[in-house]
Amino acid sequence: MPIISFANAKGGAGKTTAALLLATEIASLGKTVTIFDADPQKWISKWSELTGKPDNITVVSSVFPATISGQIHDAEATSDYIIVDLEGKENLMVANAISVSDLVVIPIQGSSMDARGGAKILRLISKLETIVRKDIPHCVVLTRTNAAVTTRAMKAVQDSLKTNGVDVLFTPIVERAAYRDLFEFGGGLADQDPALVSNIEKARENALRYTAEILERTVDLPKKHSWFQTFRKAS
To answer: Which PANTHER family match (predicted)?
Structure first.
């Protein structure tokens, strides 16, 4: 039951879109998914109220810093995958969720502001690894990219990440109308009408490649250690 959290200390980095794409694509494979909507904007909770939410996706909207680790632990009994969409800040909720995560995904757009927000999360992960005495696997996914052109700002972000040895997904999340439509009309990409949504095939291909890369990083996750239970009691 991999726990995958999405975090960036700056809002608007494409975090919620990345989380929802992963959840719906995993659900399309027949797996059960629980999403913890810890973002105050509650976009995934609003999405869940629209028609077309897969029955094998559960969305938990009531999430609190003091209880999130326990809530995640309880969800492991009924879910194949747990996905946590965190607030665009660096706070106790974010720290608690990251501490019990098997993988942290840091979405970054091609801007220095997003890069700085991502860097804060990377530093937080480093601190938490010392506290829990365990590596916390993490990676960056580039978001809202242009399929045809790599901007100067995006190139600068890519170069900076490479220089600092940060694990970056090979597949970026391309800016697609189909991704925005999920939050307007509900469901997953497989439910979208090709006659009404432009380039739905390319959007689905991009989402599948992105999902495959994330799942590859969860195949050989280590078993839970005693630190999880210790942290749960402390929080």
So the answer is: COBQ_COBB_MIND_PARA NUCLEOTIDE BINDING DOMAIN-CONTAINING PROTEIN, P-LOOP CONTAINING NUCLEOSIDE TRIPHOSPHATE HYDROLASE
Cβ count within 10 A of residue 223: 5
User: Which region holds residue 144: left if phi is over 0, alpha if psi is between -120 and 50, else beta?
Assistant: left
Dihedrals phi, psi of 51, to nearest 5 degrees: -70, 150
**Cα distance between residue 209 and residue 85, in whole Å:** 20
Q: Quick: pLDDT tens for 157-198.
A: 777 777 778 888 888 999 999 999 999 999 999 888 888 888
In tens, the pLDDT along 114-131 reads: 778 888 999 999 999 999
Q: How far is CA 72 from CA 24, 38, 146, 205, in A?
A: 19, 12, 35, 30
The domains located in the chain, with CATH, are: 3-234 (3.40.50.300)
Instruction: Determine the Cα–Cα distance for residues 36 and 101; give it in Å rounded to an integer.
Output: 12
Which residues have CB under 8 Å from 216's CB, separation 6+? none
Residue 159 CA to residue 180 CA, distance in Å, equals: 28
Question: How many angstroms separate the CA atoms of 43 and 20, rounded?
Answer: 10
| Amino acid (1-letter code) at residue 115 | A
